[in-house]
Task: structure prediction
Amino acid sequence: MKFPMTLERKLTLILFSFFLSVLCVMVLLLARLQNEYEERVYVISGDNTAYLLSSSDSVFSGAQLLSDIFVADGFYQQSLSALKDGEREENAEMLKADIVSHISAMLDTSPFIIDIALMTQKGILRAGAGFSLSSEAVDEASALARAANGASVWVGSEDESIYLARSIRRLEFLSLDELAVLFIRLDARAVAQALRGEEENAGLRLLFSSDGRLLYSEFPDRNEIPSLDETSSSIDGEECFIYHGTLPSSGFAYTVALPVESLYSDIYELVFAAFLLLMAMFAAFLLILHHIVKRMLLRLGALRRKMDAFASGSSSESIVTLPGNDEIAQLNDRFDSMAKGYKEVVEDNYRREIMLKDSAIKMLTQQINPHFLYNVLDSIYWMSQKYEADDIASMSYDLASLFRAAVSSEDLVTVRKELEMLESFLRIQRSRFADQISYTANTDECALDALIPKFSLQPLVENAVKHSVEESGTKTEITVTCSKEDDVVLLEVANTGSAFPPDMDIRLKEGKASKSTERIGLQNIDERLHLLFGEEFGLIFRNEDGKAIVSFIVPWRYDAEGNTGR
Amino acid sequence: MAGKKGICRRKIYALIAIVCVFAVSCSTVSVENTEVRKTDIASPMPPAITVEEQLELPSPVIVDIPEVVIEHEEKEEMDDEIPFSLPFSGSELLGTIDAPARDDEGVIIHISLWETGERREKLEEAFRLYESLHPDVDIVTEFVDYPGYWGNISADIGAGRLADIIEMDREHIRQYSEKALIRDLSDYNPFLSGYGIALGFSAPVMLYDKALLADAGIVLPDEFTLEAFEEIGSVLYEKYGLMTETSAGIGLLESLALWYGDDIYESILSGDTGYLTLYFSLIDHISSIPFFTSVQREDTWNRFASSVDIKEDDGILQLGHCTVEPEAFFSLTAASECPEEAIALISWLAASPDLLPLFRLSFGIPAFRSLDSISLDWSESKQLLYFEAVADDSAIPLPPAGNTEIALLLSEYSAKVSSGMPAEEASFLFLEEARDILIRAGGSAAV
Result:
């Protein structure tokens, strides 16, 4: 089934497509905006994370500074040197106690340092919560510290502690022999918990490493530790931003996983709300669009109904003023104007048609069975020939000629032909009125081939005969003039013995002249001239020099083949 | 070189002779007409004395370690010394991990220096120039005043973070090289030798207020004895209330040792106290004179300085042995992770002609730069002439480890003598303690 694309549907489709495009663009922009926002959030969160980690950095660098005291401070240098150089036992014990008391005091410098130990040849000098490293781990860390020539070495242990190991060497005379190995234990879990103090950092996962050694990891599995080129990863099914970097003071490398959800909970709601708002706006737009199209097409519908009514011939919808001044209103006005003109033309044509029909009827009524009459006249002509009645023969011949011309289908005949018919008519009339009628034809030779309506001169002459000879019995002199002027042909019939009424033109227009048959003839000619050549053409009546003159002009058209008509 | 140097020395002598022109005897200080002396002494030569006219440039001097086999004693492994196999039964260490690759920031060269004032500013400007010429090099400097410098370096060594380049001096270079804390430059550049590169050299000098002495009508004697020194000081103290600075301390002791033909550290180890008692006697005598001071003060007419400090108006006098001293002497540390770049930097500092307009003679007589392209002002000319005249480039053994501690000990006992301790007792006690220091420092091969 073909779905008709009405204007309403087309308009709706176009506007819908347009706004759908706008909606798509807005959704794309929203998506782009969100993407941009995510990138910025990633960067800003990275900065925040780096800032957050700076507090842990201060813990580590604080431990580093603390260890510097053990390395270079005169007390430890002297005490440990004395201890190593073999003081007496009682002095050694005093030295140990003194050293331990100093260590204990240094424990208070940071809440994250939970143990400090000095591994000396004379034993372990320690203060704090104790160690949890195995002897193998201690050996390994000590070896690393020794290889570092006094620099700090950081190692991580399975108990979520980070150990700073450092070889303390004798600085006196730059002997550089080892006096002890320092171990500072930091509670890495407490450091991490302190970092997670803020609610938004609750899901933070941390990893610290130093010189390629893993110090502390909150990633559940070594395999889940994000690689260095990853910026996001799924950890325990949770989407996280991944940050890698280096702490500026301690030099620790870190990897941080920050759950995305904690960062985007607000923005997701906002995006969802924005999407809903867009959809609501879209729905509202559709309703408004429907209303606008309806309203727009309402007037168009009125115009269409008017056109339909016009097409169907109903006049009930015509000339209805539509509100507004837009194109539809202008279209309506144009249509009204056009309909009005069309109506006038139709009515005019209709009137002409009626007139033509009337004229034809009148002619037909005058041509009842013309062939029969013609045949009768022909028989009369031959019988008068047989009985040598020449006058009857002549009259019947002329009458037959008139009949023949009357029944012919031609509308236009040459002036020459019309004059021949006129002479036939006058010969008949002379047989009736003898010498009462004198006839003169003044014609330009060049005008004889001009085409004029058939029987346009004969009724005029008949009218002249009727109003002069027949009514008053006076002799009449009829003059027919035919001349060519520029592109028109002037035909004039003048007669003496009668005069036209002064309001003859008006009476003819108003049809008052139709009361008599001769007037019908005049009216017939006048209307035929109008119909054939236009409103400006028609009969003109005047009285001049005792003559009643009727004239008319026709456009110069001629019979190029010189036909004389039939 | 000795011949050329002799010519220069004669010219310096002639210059000094202007100062000493009115000396009548080696032990007598005469007070002359001030105006006449001003004419003779204070009328300077035209300030710009070009080097070409005066003398040839000194040949570069590399302060080298004497031909002593330096063996870095490998320390015994501590595993055997410290019972690390302790009864721990805890957790193990975590393993390794791929650490984030650090950004390629180029080479960072760390330098520790003690320079101050104008010399520091010039060095900093030179470093900036070097960084601009080598964009991949970042120079990180740590300037520490000399009193705390070596303690800071020592702490850095203990902490395992010694800079790539450290400023060095004669007192420490032997110790540091023996401990393998600095590197032999020839290992990296066959055109270099020894354990350091100096930007220039200087000689010790006593500077005095020439105009003041002329005003006081004092003419310095040809042979400058302690009595003459005391007499001049007495006159200036009475006339102007000015103090006289003396060179008490390790410098005086070294001079006495040289006078006796001894090496101070060997004599300490051998227990020879002859010149030590003399030294403390001199201290005792000096401390008894009210206008003598052994510390630098503003109200003195003289000061013991370096030839680098010579100014246009200074009177200059050579007192004692004029051992060539390296100025801005840089060593490459064993801890450096970028030795080639560090050597390139200090070689550039020492030899680049581009730096001559900047450095001029701020770091003494340039070691590797020709002075042809610049005109020297009067101060610089005096510095150059004095150095050429007095510099003694004969090999003097570098002091062993512990020498700085001995110098401190000497100052301590000098103060005690000034406070009344008998010279003999001070000599004995100092000798004992100094000997102990040397032994503990493991300084002399003779030990």
